[in-house]
Amino acid sequence: MTFSRSGKSVVVRIVAVSMVLAMAGCSTKPQRLYRRAEAFFAQGQYELAAREYARIVQQWPRDPLADDALYKLAYLYREELDNPSGALKYYRRLADDYEKSNYVDDALFWIVYLQRRHVREPARVALTCREIDERFPDDKDLRGRAHLEVAGAYMDADRLAEAGERCAQISEQFSGRPNIAGQALLMLANITRKTADDPRESLKLYERVVNEYPDTQAAVTARQQAGWWYYGEKTEADKARLAEQRKQARVLRDVPPIEEYPGEPAMELLSAMTSMLRKEGVAVSLDEVVVISGLPFTFSFALDRPESVQAFYRNPAVAVAQQMGFGYNLWSSAGGANVLETATGCLMKDHPLLITYGRADARWCLITGHRPAEKELYLLRPGAREAVKLSPEEFAHVWQASKMPALWPRGGVLGLQFAVTERQTQPDLAATIRSVVVQASLAWDQTELMKQPAGAAAHRALLDVLTQAAQAEDPALREQIKAWAGRAIPLVIRTRQAAARFFADPGQELSQPDRAALMVAGSRYEQIAGRWEGLAQLIAQAPPEGGEEAIELLPEDRVNAWHEAVETAQEIADMEAESLDWLASSLSE
Predict the structure, then answer these.
(1) 354-398 pLDDT per residue, tens
(2) Which residue in 346, 347, 348, 344 sits closest to 329, CA to CA?
(3) Beta strand residue intervals within 64-123, DSSP E
């Protein structure tokens, strides 16, 4: 969950406004668009959510929901769509056009924040800070944070003298705000360390931070910085640090292995999630995790990229954790030292850390142990029965070169790390599956996933290329289809078979109607998997040229395997859509 500067949760705002709309009846067009946007937001379909929020702002700028829609539109551009310029534009419009909105303070702060990091012009940051001073003279926390961003902007521009002056002014002007004043003084100490001839000048400033603002994070950092001046390698502080490292040593010996699926990163990710959940004491099968991820109910098609069928419509690790009732933490960092710190925190709470590791063929792995004093890291790879030991240097050397597979929108983030936390709720299985298939039904109607045809559109695209292959003898196209089928269809079959097995033997805690519905679904997905197997066989046996010749395994009245493949693909498309809709409507709410 991402929080704004003032601590107000965007997700909480979504729920609160949605409840108000529900009570009001949602009779107006802006209200209906707003509900659509909220639904897309909650499902992680951020581009669709942004489009609906933008329509409200553009077409009904004076509607009571317009400022709320504009605030969330700016948030999406900043956090989810990686478009700081767009975020700046929308925050600026919110601050200018909706002066009485409750979001104006947040909007102005985010303008300062983004200007520092993306515009990189200290004068513009300072100008916005001055606007905050004038519009919110009594909000000292907001003003202080803004002034810190101005000082940081001058530091980023290597204008250290001006940055130092700003820091000194902030520490004096906001002395009644310990966190702000302490941070300003810490920044001044860091600047002095770079510019002063005598290192003791910066040391005095670090000591001031510790003495004047002892209960702040700035004081913690100042103690660490000052320590470099006080202690050598063999001092008592080093001994204490070594003792602390030994306290932080933690190796989890009971993490189940990750099943190996070479060339199928989606399945290895879900297997790693299964291992994590089993470590938490959950009796869960890989089939159940595959179903909860939504993968059996998705299909993406790109003829030149067979691996695209592995795409999820949202982060599967987050989705599985939430559906199973667990909290989670999600980080990203390109630095090897940072991931070791993260891993230590997780391991101390008995949670392994999920990462990708490797070079060109990075795979999903679990960090199951870290012994800082011994400089040992324990890494569990797919297919391994035990974790291997690596030195931090060995780990960092490969980690920094790892490329994460892009399996969901914005999923290829460098240095992604994931861990489950404590279980918060015991999920209801029928409700969980219904939630998954309802969201999958919504996703099925989207025309694209990761810039490729998805859902119903993907089936139409597959039918188009099969029809083209059937109607015109094109050896190159037919060979390309064969190559696609050989790599893509086995994973599609695997996920449908997983759904069939899981549904065929539902849990005893389900009601009788839900058990019956899932058992029917199991039969349906077994048939779907069989149809996919038939399609794969037809494509494999179909002649690349000379398409009028008969092939042995086709009925006697069929002489063109490509036409048979078209018919089978159409059957699959109909069965997948109908089964998904049927399952979504058959489970009790």
Answers:
(1) 999 887 778 999 999 998 888 899 999 999 999 999 998 888 888
(2) 346
(3) none
Strands 416-423 and 326-332: antiparallel
> Same structural domain for residues 473 and 391?
no
Long-range contacts of 547-556 (CB under 8 A, 24+ apart): 547/470, 547/473
Q: How far apart are CA 365 and CA 505, in angstroms?
A: 30
- Tens digit of each residue's pLDDT (9 = 90 or more) over 231-285: 433 345 455 555 666 677 889 999 999 999 998 999 999 999 999 999 999 999 9
Do 403 and 463 share a structural domain?
no
C-alpha neighbours within 13 Å on the C-beta side of residue 420: 26
* pLDDT per position as a tens digit, 390-436: 998 888 888 766 777 789 987 776 778 999 999 988 888 888 888 88
Q: Nearest-CA neighbor of 492 among 295, 304, 302?
A: 295
Burial bucket for residue 431 (CB in 10 Å: 0-12, 13-18, 19+): middle
What does pTM read for this prediction?
Answer: 0.60
Residue 95, domain member (yes or no): yes
| 231 in the same domain as 199 | yes
Contact (CB, 8 A) for 324 and 391: no
Specify whether 193 is located in the same domain as 214: yes
The letter for the amino acid at 560 is N
**Domain membership flag for residue 473:** yes
Instruction: Dump pLDDT digits (tens) for 442-486.
Output: 888 888 888 899 999 999 999 999 999 998 888 999 999 999 999
CATH number at residue 215: 1.25.40.10
What is the number of structural domains in the chain?
A: 3
Cα–Cα distance, 345 to 45 (Å, whole number): 31
Tell me, yes or no, whether 282 and 408 share the same domain.
Answer: yes
CA–CA distance, 101 with 94 (Å, rounded to integer): 8
Cα of 403 vs its chain's centroid, Å: 15
Mark whether 454 and 554 lie in a shared domain: yes
**Domain boundary, last residue among 391, 424, 457:** 424
Which residues span the domain enclosing 535?
430-586
CA distance 120 to 91: 17
Domain presence at residue 514: yes
Structure confidence at residue 229 as a pLDDT band (50, 70, 90): low
CA dihedral 212→213→218→220, nearest 10 degrees, is 90
DSSP 405-468: ---STT---TTEEEEEEEE-----HHHHHHHHHHHHHHHHT-SBSSSSBBHHHHHHHHHHHHHH
If we measure between CA atoms, which residue out of 357, 413, 350, 407 comes closest to residue 380? 357
